[in-house]
Write a structure and sequence with these properties.
8-stranded mixed beta sheet; homodimer; 20% helix; two-stranded antiparallel sheet; 4 helices; alpha/beta; Dihydrofolate Reductase, subunit A
Chain lengths: 172, 172
């Protein structure tokens, strides 16, 4: 099983403002930059409780019938009726083993803390980072502490007319 | 007068390790990525005392006869005999006004704290950021707090065979 991250960040490395707001991601305008193709390639999502609640707060449900595994030790807010949501808890290695055992082949890991924990545990194989042309100065960082250096292999970088720069890396 | 930053960072946004070490910048190998052309385009450098001392510690002097202005409220360690070094102190707007008044046209602002202070003061017009394909987890960050969002205009992104990705932005 492979785990990927697909995320938009400010040039100074934040995936959201301190209060979770994502307004600055519009700085590059709404030009398509491969999310739909990426989303079609995954068969499940893994995210933290905060990201789940943020998504619920948007009022729609983006993920169709694709299974969404929410990492939380607490009960979850009820999902919309059309959603396929399941709570899980445990360290990244156990989550990955459990999902691989259930036959998933490509998971999309999302949310600040969840991405950081999966990276630290060596459980991410691909990073697709889209830099939005703005500095916001503070917020929720994409990256966090690591136990050791993590070498990346650059696959490709794409630039868009609206100033988005998307870089894809593999992690050995 | 124009002020530019030309800097290498890990993908997680660090310009140096906590102890100032720059070893990880080699992760991309030594392929040329435009530094010489950039350096030829500036007529002075501005850096903080720590960066100055780090450069002195390298044992050579990279900057030839190009004037280097070191921001410090204290006496500086003596520069090599061939170097042109001058101490300055004051907020970025005053430094920029003083250098413009002396006829400089394009300054190269370097060093973590100095870059952050000049950005916060709105005194940087161009950012050339080279991402080195590694995550190091902690260190001296390129970016710091800002008083407000800073919109960037994407100029160009170049990718190198060794995995370096260099993005150039203008700040209005």
């Amino acid at each position: 099983m492979k785990a990927s991250v697909f995320v938009g960040v400010s040039v100074d490395g934040f995936i959201a403002r301190r209060d979770g707001a994502l307004d600055f991601l519009d700085a590059g305008g709404g030009e398509p930059h491969g999310f739909e193709e990426f989303f079609a390639s995954v068969d499940a999502l893994v995210m933290g409780r905060k990201t789940y609640e943020t998504v619920l707060g948007f009022g729609g449900w983006f993920y169709g019938k694709k299974p969404v595994f929410v990492l939380s030790s607490q009960e979850l807010a009820p999902p919309p009726t059309e959603a396929v949501v399941e709570r899980m808890a445990g360290p990244p290695t156990e989550i990955v083993a459990a999902l691989a055992g259930r036959g998933f082949e490509h998971i999309y890991v999302d949310g600040g803390r969840t991405i950081q924990e999966f990276l630290r545990a060596g459980q991410i194989q691909r990073l697709i980072i889209t830099h939005v042309p703005v500095l916001i100065g503070s917020g929720i960082p994409l990256f966090g502490a690591l136990d050791r250096d993590t070498r990346l292999t650059h696959v490709d970088t794409r630039q868009y007319a609206n100033g988005l720069v998307q870089t894809e890396y593999l992690i050995a």
